[in-house]
Amino acid sequence: MKFIENIINNMDKESKEIFIYFYYEQRKIKEISKILNISESKVKTRLHRVRKKIKKELEKGGYRYE
Question: Structurally, how many domains does the chain consist of?
């Protein structure tokens, strides 16, 4: 879990907020877009990129995700 927290803490502010709202606070994409005043598609894109980055970093760290 600390490994993922380190990855999240090194993200840009907006990506970090989106990730936290979605996964920790379990908010819907529509709700996140209203809070941050950005489009729903931008929220979806950021979530996709964040998941991809976390997966890549986990694999570099020796973790396997399937």
Answer: 1
